[in-house]
């Protein structure tokens, strides 16, 4: 009986010892895990003084085990990791840096990188087609290409404001003496549609009726007057440009000329600036040889740099010296004459012109800086003065950049006609006349 009791007591004590050892082991593990977790949070090493049973090697093992368990944990430890990452972001990105990032992002979205971040007012969009295409996405830059296009467009607009201009020259109620003084090389003559278009400005609405009265008060005469056939034929027109052609095509047919010379009491000469022949300069290389030239030899000088340049129709009067003449912006061409202060030149040595382009050091010139003409337009000086006095022509000073601006069609978008752009740039009554031409279709 006593032996059975002793065995029972021993078993109970053994169980108690086992329970105590297990409890102490679990408590030790929890404390080790807490120590490791806190150490992983960059706690001072002095913490380990309170745990003498932990050696440095054990603490490193605990650290590795804790890092691995937290890496693969999907519960509470994930929150700790997020907290650590947030601490890291706050430590690395300061409020000042975040403000700079937001400022940079705003600049990119507004497309102001080309101006050094300066705030700019939205530029006025002149082309109605472009405005319609923007639609609801206007002002939003969605790609690097859009950003570059926006910067390029703004730079181009700023450049055009400085280099593309036109100013009226003739004051109100000018006398013949005033006209005679202003007639010189470089002056641009812009056709008055009132003199070239049949029944121009007939009233179609209250607005157009008001414009018609305004024009009649300015220019006098009857709005239903017919253009002179001799005036039309001088510029290759058999009939007045009809409204059915549309305003742009009609404006293309209204002559714009630049005076080359206007000697007092002599003959005035000009080039028609807005009429192409439909040929390129290279097409003339196969022209028939002139009398006295060897068979197969071209009548023109070799001009390889200009082969793809358009050939322009200067007028119905035969030229003097040669088959071709030219306007250009290259002062190094031998024998050329300066027409305007902003660098427009007339004539010169055609063959030497190719080499002359390379002599200009401050800018790069190409074949597009030259315009080549066949024939020209001529008047007696007295006749031209009468036509200007009669308001057949508007006298203007126009920038070289505007005269040489490319007006080729870009896809579905039509370029603005030269006549239209000059009239708009001169403003005032000239703008009103231009608007009336375009409003006749409405």
Secondary-structure topology with pairs:
Elements lengths: L1 H39 L15 H17 L3 H17 L2 H16 L17 H7 L9 H20 L2 E3 L7 H7 L5 E4 L1 H4 L9 H14 L9 H5 L13 H7 L2 E6 L5 E6 L3 E5 L29 E4 L11 E4 L8 E2 L6 E2 L3 H8 L12 E5 L2 E4 H9 L3 E6 L1 H5 L13 H9 L1 H12 L3
Helix pairs in contact: 1-2, 9-16, 15-16
**Rg over CA atoms:** 42 Å
Report the helical percentage. Answer: 40-55%
Question: Reading side by side through the largest sheet, how are the strands ordered?
Answer: 1-12-2-3-4-11
Number of strands: 12
**Main pleated-sheet profile:** 6 strands, antiparallel
Uncertain stretches of 5 or more adjacent residues: 28-57, 67-90, 112-138, 202-208, 219-224
Q: Kindly state the mean pLDDT as a whole number?
A: 73
Shape: elongated
Figure out the total of helices.
Answer: 16
N-to-C CA distance: 127 Å
The percentage of residues in β strands lies in 5-15%
- Helix and strand pattern: HHHHHHEHEHHHHEEEEEEEHEEHEHHH
Which structural class fits the helix and strand makeup?
alpha+beta
Primary descriptors:
6-stranded antiparallel beta sheet; about 450 residues; 6-stranded mixed beta sheet; alpha+beta
């Amino acid at each position: 009986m006593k032996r059975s009791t002793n065995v029972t007591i021993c078993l109970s004590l053994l169980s108690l010892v086992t329970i105590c050892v297990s409890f102490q082991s679990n408590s030790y593990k929890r404390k080790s895990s807490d120590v490791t977790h806190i150490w992983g949070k960059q706690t001072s090493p002095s913490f380990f003084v309170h745990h003498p049973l932990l050696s440095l090697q054990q603490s490193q093992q605990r650290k590795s085990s804790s890092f691995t368990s937290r890496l693969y944990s999907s519960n509470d430890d994930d929150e700790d990791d997020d907290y650590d990452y947030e601490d890291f972001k706050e430590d690395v990105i300061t409020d000042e840096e975040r403000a700079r990032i937001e400022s940079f992002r705003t600049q990119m979205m507004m497309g102001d990188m080309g101006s050094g971040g300066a705030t700019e007012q939205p530029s006025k969009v002149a082309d109605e087609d472009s405005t319609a295409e923007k639609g609801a996405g206007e002002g939003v830059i969605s790609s690097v290409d859009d950003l570059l296009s926006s910067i390029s467009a703004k730079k181009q607009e700023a450049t055009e404001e400085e280099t593309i201009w036109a100013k009226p020259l003739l004051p109100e109620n000018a006398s013949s003496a005033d006209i005679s003084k202003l007639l010189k090389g470089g002056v641009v003559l812009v056709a008055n549609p009132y003199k070239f278009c049949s029944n121009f400005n007939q009233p179609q609405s209250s607005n157009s009726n008001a414009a018609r009265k305004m024009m009649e008060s300015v220019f006098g005469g009857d709005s239903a007057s017919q253009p002179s056939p001799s005036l039309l034929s001088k510029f290759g027109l058999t009939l007045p440009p009809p409204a059915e052609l549309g305003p742009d095509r009609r404006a293309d047919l209204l002559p714009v000329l630049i005076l080359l010379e206007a000697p007092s009491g002599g003959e005035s000469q000009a080039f028609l600036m807005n009429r192409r022949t439909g040929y390129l300069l290279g097409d003339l290389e196969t022209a028939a040889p002139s009398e006295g030239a060897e068979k197969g030899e071209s009548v023109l000088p070799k001009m390889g740099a200009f082969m793809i340049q358009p050939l322009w129709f200067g007028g119905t009067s035969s030229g003097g010296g040669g088959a071709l003449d030219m306007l250009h912006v290259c002062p190094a061409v031998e024998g050329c004459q300066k027409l305007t202060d902003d660098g427009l030149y007339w004539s010169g040595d055609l063959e030497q012109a190719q080499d002359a382009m390379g002599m200009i050091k401050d800018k790069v010139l190409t074949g597009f800086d030259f315009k080549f003409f066949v024939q020209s337009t001529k008047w007696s000086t007295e006749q031209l003065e009468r036509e200007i006095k009669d308001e057949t022509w508007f006298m203007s000073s126009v920038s070289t950049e505007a005269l040489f601006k490319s007006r080729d069609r870009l896809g579905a978008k039509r370029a603005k006609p030269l006549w239209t752009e000059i009239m708009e740039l001169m403003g005032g009554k000239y703008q009103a006349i231009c608007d009336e031409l375009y409003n006749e279709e409405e």
